[in-house]
Design goal:
transmembrane; membrane; Peroxisomal biosis factor 11 beta; transmembrane helix; 245 residues; mainly alpha; single chain; PEX11; globular; 8 helices
């Protein structure tokens, strides 16, 4: 499935590149047809995915963390609805239900896909916040132990401190820099979370473009879809890179 998706978005990216470089219309048409066939093949292989997504939602309901339970359950429910709309689209494109309004069902499917991705990114943001809090607490404990309990060794006024006039802006810049460094440290130490953030962020451009909320163009959509597909294949090859639960 991941290979088909990667091939489909590679065709989308290739078609955009050929159009920009003035390739022959016949070649462009062949690439578009190949992309359409790959898309239809993926829809066929996803016929049972709605049931799988519902089962995943039922399992997520039992998570102890309230925020994770909400984000993961709602994400799986939206995925189930997305796959259901996708099945209707497949029936229309394959000729089983020729009267299906494909534009309307495509908009519905991308809307559910977008909601699912928003929930995934919300879950990622929540996990990042928890890990940053844990890392910050650990750093504070290490600083206190290295200071040996000397008063004022951790927090000093110094130039630009709280009591210094004009010290607010430099302090804010320092705090922001420290937060960015802490974020980078957390993501570097948790590859599954980093991959999930990048994959969901790349996927987000697809429904945003298809729904007309943010026109990215076929080149950006193809590139983001290809990157996301490669990361998905990577999590299949290396299961430890898959974010759990």
């Amino acid at each position: 499935m991941g290979k088909l998706r990667a091939a489909q978005y590679a065709c989308s990216l290739l078609g955009h590149a050929l159009q920009r470089h003035g390739a022959s219309p016949e070649l462009q048409k062949q690439i578009r047809q190949l992309e359409g066939h790959l898309s239809l093949g993926r829809k066929l292989l996803r016929l049972g995915n709605s049931a799988d997504a519902l089962e995943s939602a039922k399992r997520a309901v039992h998570l102890s963390d309230v925020v994770l339970r909400f984000c993961i359950t709602v994400s799986h429910l939206n995925r189930a609805l997305y796959f259901a709309c996708d099945n209707v689209l497949w029936a229309g494109k394959s000729g089983l239900a020729p009267r299906v309004d494909q534009e309307k069902w495509a908009q519905r499917s991308f809307r559910y896909y977008l909601f699912s991705l928003i929930m995934n990114l919300s879950r990622d943001a929540y996990e990042i916040r928890l890990l940053m809090e844990q890392e910050s607490s650990a750093c504070s404990r290490r600083l206190k132990s290295s200071a040996g309990g000397v008063p004022g060794a951790i927090e000093t006024g110094g130039p630009g401190g709280p009591g210094t006039p004009g010290g607010g802006l430099p302090q804010l810049a320092l705090k922001l820099r420290l937060r960015v460094l802490l974020l980078a440290r957390v993501l570097r130490g948790h590859p599954p979370l980093l991959l999930d953030v990048v994959r969901n962020a790349c996927d987000l451009f697809i429904p945003l473009d298809k729904l007309g909320l943010w026109r990215c163009g076929p080149g950006i959509v193809g590139l983001c879809g290809l990157v996301s597909s490669i990361l998905s294949i990577l999590t299949l090859i290396c299961p430890w890179l898959r974010l759990k639960p």
